[in-house]
Sequence to fold (135 residues):
Amino acid sequence: MADANKLFKVEIITPERVFYNGDASMIEFTTTEGDIGVYKNHIPLTAVLSPGIVKVTEGVGVKKAAVHSGFVEILGDKVTLLAEIAEWPDEIDKNRAQEAKMRAERRLKVKEAGLDVRRAEIALKKALVRIEVAK
Fold:
């Protein structure tokens, strides 16, 4: 069990709901600058989230979720993720994620006129994150 002195508050909020609200000893997530791991008393920081896997280490284990874009605010005793979308593994439709992956890969391979490459790359990343979390 985690030492209570090492715990800090974690909130993951989406437009639809408070996705997660609890205490953690560590949280890991992906930003536009790379992966970050946060413990209690981390320096204050604000960053832009990228599609990725969030790992919340609680006293008895690790919870994983897919998070797709947003912002994070890190304070000494609290981390708040404001996410466009957040999904637990059991909320992910694996078949739909596989189809989205294939669609994005096909678009990137064919490169039709007018293709928004960045948008297709983000769609591919989101699909890959969903597939990984749903395993």
Q: What stands out?
A: The mean pLDDT is 91.
